[in-house]
């Protein structure tokens, strides 16, 4: 994003987990905008003994896999912690796949080649990568949170691969008061909202008491056309597909909401 572009007058509500926002907060402020952080999803690492034993066993078996897929920056961060704990020297021969450039950057510490789509950040974009087409007989480790979309695993299994989940974290909804979010949006004069997943969108609508008209005049930045359509179907009006969730892409989308007459 050009240093000449300013976000003066923009009061941005960031809703993603707190650990993921620091660099974007700094960038928005650096371009003249203001930030209000209200994480609508909390990330909690899996701690249950049986679940951790399953994770450990699959991490120890990484040398038996052909590829590892990381579906988020949280999956990358926590996955790397597990890999570092049990593989002081990485197994060779694996390829890593990331959903989006931000997750790919988190994986650059690996000696494995890291692949991601430069066309978008959805599961569909990942599944279109050449290396995930002819995979019959391959074994793939899928690093993710507990639950979520099944599209990646289902599609890869249809292509003949064996897919094992390595589920590293839970997503929790913070215990905010029922009117907190709307009150904050009004008091802080929020005029742009960043929402980086369908689940966060659901939580936002819940805290708005399923009243999307409460933010009808506010642009909502989302990372993909799928989530944009989901937001429109839910009743939101001004929804902008940024085409990604990395800082640079979000900043460009935010810049597009600033009145040109400023």
Largest sheet: 5 strands, parallel
Any idea what the radius of gyration is?
19 Å
> Helix/strand/pairing class, anyone?
alpha/beta
Straight-line N-to-C gap = 18 Å
Q: Looking across the biggest beta sheet, what order are the strands in?
A: 2-1-10-11-12
CATH architecture of the largest domain: 3-Layer(aba) Sandwich
Q: Number of DSSP strands?
A: 12
Low-confidence stretches: none
Shape: elongated
Tally of contiguous helical segments: 10
Proportion of strand residues: 15-25%
Estimate percent helicity: 25-40%
CATH names the topology of the largest domain as Rossmann fold
- Quaternary structure classification: single chain
Along the chain, the helix and strand elements come as EHEEHEHEHEHEHEEHEHEHEH
Mean pLDDT: 93
CATH class of the largest domain: Alpha Beta
**What is the total domain count?**
2
Structure, explained:
The chain has 262 residues and is of the alpha/beta class. 34% of the residues lie in helices and 18% in strands. The chain folds into two domains: 11-40 and 176-255, Rossmann fold (3-Layer(aba) Sandwich), CATH 3.40.50.10090; 44-171, Rossmann fold. The chain has helices at residues 22-30, 49-60, 73-86, 101-106, 123-127, 151-158, 180-187, 198-207, 225-233, 247-255, and strands at 11-14, 34-37, 42-45, 67-70, 95-98, 114-115, 139-144, 162-167, 169-172, 192-194, 220-222, 239-241. Strands 2-1-10-11-12 form a five-stranded parallel β-sheet, sandwiched between helices. Strands 6-5-4-7-8 form a five-stranded parallel β-sheet, with helices on both faces. The radius of gyration is 19 Å and the shape is elongated.
């Amino acid at each position: 994003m050009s240093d000449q572009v300013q976000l003066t007058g923009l009061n941005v509500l960031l809703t993603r987990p707190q650990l993921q926002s620091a660099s974007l907060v700094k960038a928005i402020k650096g371009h003249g905008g203001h930030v209000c952080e209200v994480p609508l999803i909390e990330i909690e690492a899996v701690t249950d003994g049986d679940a951790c034993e399953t994770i450990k066993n699959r991490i120890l078996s990484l040398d038996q896999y052909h590829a590892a897929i990381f579906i988020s920056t949280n999956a990358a961060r926590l996955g790397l912690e597990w890999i570092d704990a049990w593989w002081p020297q990485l197994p060779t021969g694996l390829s890593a796949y990331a959903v989006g450039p931000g997750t790919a950057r988190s994986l650059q510490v690996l000696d494995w080649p890291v692949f991601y789509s430069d066309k978008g950040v959805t599961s569909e974009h990942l599944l279109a990568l050449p290396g995930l087409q002819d995979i019959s007989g391959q074994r793939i480790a899928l690093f993710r949170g507990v639950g979520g979309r099944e599209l990646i695993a289902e599609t890869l299994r249809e292509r003949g691969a064996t897919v094992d989940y390595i589920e590293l974290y839970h997503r929790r909804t913070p215990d905010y008061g029922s009117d907190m979010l709307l009150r904050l949006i009004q008091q802080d004069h929020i005029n742009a909202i960043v929402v980086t997943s369908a689940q966060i969108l659901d939580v936002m609508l819940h805290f708005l008491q399923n009243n999307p008209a409460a933010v009808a005049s506010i642009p909502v930045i989302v990372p993909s056309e799928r989530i944009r359509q989901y937001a429109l179907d839910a009743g939101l009006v001004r929804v902008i597909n940024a085409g990604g969730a990395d800082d640079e892409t979000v900043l460009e989308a935010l810049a597009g909401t600033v009145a040109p007459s400023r």
